[in-house]
Amino acid sequence: MGALMENMHGKLPLADPALKSADKPARSDRLAARGYVLAGGQSRLRPHVLRFLPPLLGLALLILAWQVIAAKNANFPTPYATCLEALKLFADPFYRKGPNDQGIGWNILASLQRVALGFGLAAAVGIPLGFLIGRFKFLAGMFNPIVALLKPVSPLAWLPIGLLVFKAADPAAIWSIFICSIWPMVINTAVGVQRVPQDYMNVARVLNLSEWKILTKILFPAALPYMLTGVRLAIGTAWLVIVAAEMLTGGVGIGFWVWDEWNNLNVPHILIAIGVIGVVGLLLELALVALARAFTFEEVGS
Fold first, then answer.
1. Pick the residue with more confidence: 249 or 17?
2. Nearest alpha carbon to residue 173 among 83, 224, 247, 102
3. What is the structure's pLDDT at 7?
4. I need a surface site. Which of 115, 152, 264, 268 has the fewest CB within 10 A?
């Protein structure tokens, strides 16, 4: 009765130990939920960090090595000085001051045009030839020795032959691209056709399919991943060769531009050209990887 009167006069009751113990799990659940949210955010960020951090570290390492070389060699430009020259160079990449004095944009376009012509001719010849070699053993026996003999020859070794036959620098450079681009497409396409399961060919024979149906319905879908791999290898080689060919033939092109800047002892421009050549080659590679992923169900590596 006394305790009741004290409570009525405004004294607070003592806290119930059972309520305290019931409140602890709720607080711990809230803390755990907060920790889960933080962990979830970290797990969502982790793939992006793992994707972008290694390339950034690699570029940072490259720039650091570049800076160290420039610090030990007074004739070698620093990354900062090269960046300033690049800003000036790309401020007007399409100027024309004469046949041998044009902006870097025109030189890149001229090289890409030669690559497109040589590479397109190589694809038009190499891919059908690869299908024929893979499909018919007689043709494989006839062409395999020729491919094995000519494939190891350096593409630049064909440049004098092109100059002799075509009597001009542009066709000779395109010829060099053609002859170096054709072998990866021929070989990879032939391998893709030869690896078509024999069961498919037996079914085609039972159904009495025409050669055109066999080509379009069986061989082409099965050989497409191999064919696109050959195309990727060929475009990288073609872009590599055009720079060297243009150094020797002259005219307008990124290779000639590099050689001309070397004659002028303009080392920053040479470094800029190296970066441009690498970026253009990377973009060509990525475009063909995207094309391969669009037309095949298999995962195509970069």
1. 249
2. 247
3. 47
4. 152
Question: Would you state the structure tokens that stand for residue 46, as one six-digit string?
Answer: 């982790």
Q: Which residue has the higher pLDDT, 182 or 12?
A: 182
pLDDT by residue (tens digit) across 205-243? 888 888 888 888 888 888 888 998 898 889 988 998 888
pLDDT, tens only, 62-117: 899 988 988 888 888 898 989 999 998 888 888 888 777 788 889 999 999 999 99
